[in-house]
Amino acid sequence: PPTRSLVSGGKKSWFASFDFMHPFLTSWAQSINGPFWTMHIIFWGSMLLLFVAWLRRRLPKPVFFGAVAGLFLITGTGGFSLFLIGYLLHDLFAWLQAHPHRATNWIGFAVLLTGLALIDAHDFNALKPLYDVQNAVSRGPTLYQEWLNELGSVFIFAAVLMSSALAKAFSASFFKTLGRLSFSLYLTHFP
User: Fold this and answer.
1) pTM here?
2) Residue 164 and residue 170: Cα distance in Å, rounded?
3) pLDDT (tens digit per residue) in 123-156
4) In this structure, how many other beta carbons lie within 10 angstroms of the beta carbon of residue 110?
5) Cβ neighbours around 155 below 10 Å, total
C-alpha cells in the first residue's frame, strides 16, 4: 500500500515490498490518534540504535563508521537519521568528557548560535546541495526547511553536550520543569 509507513519517514515503507508485512504496517497519514503516530518510529529507531550499538562492539572503528555512513544513506532525511546522530553525539560527549578542553565552551556556544541560525534560516541555500544529494540517495524526502530545522536542532543538542557552561545553564529548574511537562503536553495535543 502506498500510504503506509513503518520504517520510512515518507509515504512508503521499506517493508511495503514484502506482501506478508502489509497487515502489520500502520498508516500514520490516516491515524485516528494523532499524538501516537510516532510510536512506531520510536520503536524502530530504538531497534536501529540497538543494532548500531551491536555493530560498535563487533566492528573495528573504520568499518563501524563506514556502516553508520551507509545507514545515513538509507535513513536519509527521515526521522531515523536523528537517532543515528543522537548515537554519534553520545560518543562525542563521552570523548569530550574524557578529553576536557577550555575551548569546548566557546565552540559549544558557536555551535548553539549556528543551530539557532539554521532553524531561523528561511533563505539560506548554502546547504541545499547537501540536502539534494541526501534526498537523491535516500528514501523519505522531507522539505528543505524541515531538514534545516532538524539540522539546527542537532547543532543545539551538540552545543549543550560540548559546553559544560551551556549544560549548566540548561539544567536550571525552569528547563527541568519544561522537560518534565513537554512529553505530557505532546501526548495530549491533537493536531
Assistant:
1) 0.57
2) 10
3) 778 888 878 877 776 655 567 888 788 888 889 9
4) 14
5) 19
